[in-house]
Design brief:
- The protein is of the alpha/beta class.
- The protein has three helices and four strands, in the order βαβαβαβ.
- The model has no long low-confidence stretch (mean pLDDT about 90).
């Protein structure tokens, strides 16, 4: 996460959602000069998931995925690992 600090725009905010034991290294100048902030957010509670799914349903949000039949799982995996997959790769049965 330390590497993205300088990529934040003016008044940019780095939202930390994942937990790790690795420290985030940032200098005060990096924060002050761009009025940047780093904020932690505890997410992932069952209520958060329900609210998110309800919002998606009401708003017509649909996932952007590439689907592959289970028989082509090796091809799907290779595409994902190559970085050429757009969005998510999903296997269908």
């Amino acid at each position: 996460m330390s590497g993205v600090i300088d990529g934040l725009g003016p008044n940019g905010r780095l939202m930390v959602l994942g937990a790790t034991t690795e420290p985030i290294e940032v200098t005060p100048v990096q924060l002050i000069m761009g009025s940047r902030t780093i904020q932690g957010w505890a997410s992932g509670t069952p209520a958060d998931s329900e609210d998110t799914l309800r919002f998606a349903e009401l708003s017509g949000v649909r996932p952007m995925i590439e689907t592959y039949p289970l028989e082509r799982a090796a091809e799907a995996y290779a595409r994902m690992m190559s970085g050429k997959a757009e969005f998510r790769v999903v296997l269908t049965m």
